[in-house]
Every structure is written in C-alpha cells, then in structure tokens.
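Q: Can I see a sequence and its folded structure?
A: Here is a first one.
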Amino acid sequence: MGYQLPPLPYPYDALEPHLDARTLEVHHDKHHATYLANLNKALEPAPDLLTLPPEELLKDLSVVPESIRTAVRNNGGGFVNHNFYWEGMAPRAGGEPPAGSPLALALQEAFGDLSVFKEKFSAAAVGRFGSGWGWLSVDKQGRLMIHSTANQDSPLSEGLIPLLTCDVWEHAYYLNYQNRRADYVAAWWNLVNWKKVAERYTEAC
C-alpha cells in the first residue's frame, strides 16, 4: 500500500496568528502529500523497501537502486522532513526548553545563551539560498550543530540526528509573509515545541 500521510498533529488554524490555516492546509494536504505520492510511485519497482521506515532509506541511500535513488532522496526527504517539521511545532508553544533538561544544558554549553542560539539558527534558516531547511542536529560526536540543507535533503543522509527544523521553502510561508522570510522565521519561534525537541535530544544521546 505504500507509506501513509500522517494527519497534522493539530487543526489547521491552531498555529495562528503565526501560521495561518490556509497555509497549513495547502502545505500539508498538497505539498506534503505530493512528496509522499511521488515517493510511493518511485518505490514501485522496489516494493521490498517499503518494509523499512522511510528514515532508514535516507540514512543509507545505497540500499536504494541507483535508478530510483534521486527520486527517493528528493521525495523521501520531502516526506520525512515535513513529518519532522509538523511535530516540532505546537499551539501555544515557543518560550524556552524545559529548565534543567539535558537539552537546555547542552544548548547553554554549545552556544552560551538561548538568544545566541536563536540568532545563529535564524541566520542559517534565513540565509539558505533558494529553497531548503534550517536545522539543529546532533553530530557523530554527540555535539549540537546548526546547519541548513538545500531542497529536500535530510540530515539523516549526512549521518546526523535532527532535533529541530524550520522549513524555508516559499510554500511554507508565502501566502502570509510573501518574500519576508526573516519575518516568518521570527514568528516561527513562537511555535517551537521545546518539549518534543527535548525528547528528541534525550533519545539521540
């Protein structure tokens, strides 16, 4: 049957005023769903791969036949990245990581101050040329790192463990923010589900 599209974790209008209902509806039901449909279509010649979670395909693209590898990388990345993006936001969220949590302590050690972290992350997201994503990930040495990826590339393919992402494709914000990517990223901080990010960090470490 192929992979399935998870429903949004909240109603379309739950993230207003920072992200409007129409943007969420189009983003999830059209863009996200299209990546999924194209991923399932790409895997039709290799149905045995559907027994693996899509994240596992991105972690080791060498298991994917070369003839469909680019399609799986692009559309699988789009599918997985969007799942990750939705789960990293929540209504009435934002603020700071849970006080005293391993994540809060790690952010302080790595960046000295949450405001410095936010500034550096925003710069990576806003500064990504063209379409892509801003990320907070854990590297192979267990260190926090801020980076960005182009198009639908996933940190999983680089051996990294992603913790938090901001989608900076224009379809993520253009209906409300037009070309003002920096305004969108600034508003997005009010939606960050720090509890979920903290859980991801604990699992990663």
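Q: Show me another, different protein.
A: A second, unrelated one:
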Amino acid sequence: MIIAIDGPAASGKGTLAKRLAQHYGLPHLDTGLLYRAIARSMLDCGARLDDVEAAVRAARAINPASFDEKELKGASLAHAASLVSAVPQVRAALLSLQRDFGRAGAVLDGRDTGTVVFPDADVKIFVTASPEIRARRRTTELNQVGQPAALADVLADILRRDERDMSRSAAPLKRAPDAHLLDTTHLDIDAAFRAAVDIVEAVRAGRKRG
C-alpha cells in the first residue's frame, strides 16, 4: 500500500505520516528532507543555491539513510530548501529515488507525492490548517528544540513559502483531484491521526467491496 500525504509547511503532515507508517508497518519518507539535505550539502561546500549543476550533483549524491533529521529540520534550512525545491532539474533527479523507495509500499509526505511522485497512490491525503495555526505550531516546535523564534516572523515565512510552493512551475503544491482533505486547524495530533486512519480504512473498505 502506498499512502501519499501532501500539504503546506507545518500542517502536521510529517507527524501524521510517521504515525501512519508505524500503524501500518510501512517505511516512511519525508520528501522535504531530501531538499533540505541538498541545501545543506550546497551550503557546506560553498555553492550558490541558484547553481543548478551543483544542486543536481548534490541531489544525485544524497542518501536518506544517513540523514540527521534534527539537524535538517532546523529553521535555517527552510528558506534554502524552498529555493532548491523549485528547481525542475533537482525535482527530476530525485523522482526515481522517491519512486524506488515507495514502490513496494510506503508512506511518503511532501508537496507533490500524490500529484507527481505517486499519482496512482492507493491513498492520498491533503493535510492543511490555517496559516496562523501552522505558524503557532512551528514556533512552538522550534522553541522546544532550542531555536528561538518569534510568531510573527514564522508566520511571514510560512506565507512566503506557501506562495513560492504554490506558484512554482515545477510540481507546484496543490491538492490532487482524488486526495482526501484533512483540515487539522481544530484537531490535536491524536484526533488528526484517527481521522487519517479513518480515511485509509474507508479507501481500503471501498476497494474490497469493489
């Protein structure tokens, strides 16, 4: 079973994807970490983020098994990763890696997992929440790991990322026509998880009846 979860920054899709993967005994891939890893690699070697050739080389060299998720999730990489992810050649270079990872069954979350990476995924969920709630969650998350952040700054950054992700020419952020909408604005993580499981089970039950 392939479960594709998409949505904007700080919507809760990553946490949901991890819990769904554990619940169904499937591997999980946070595709956003791929772009953060590319940005980290480029910054470490002094490459410009608009250097397409360097970005593609970094994309072809990354190994998800070696990722330090805590380091990659830092606020300092959010903007850089957003810039790198808008490069069509980078997205193309990562496509086979993502498809190879999920082909035998997996939960993948990101911006285009249900529209580009696995348009034929068994289950597609588009997770969202209001920008203000997403900013509050991200601010709390950053402060908890010792990265001071102001709510107003985080909200401004989220709005910029939303605009960039939705307007880019390569794999823009959008809800797949057959994706189930899950708005977590008024849900805590447990309630959101139960809602996601309900969606998966409803899809599976419908296929069994068919």
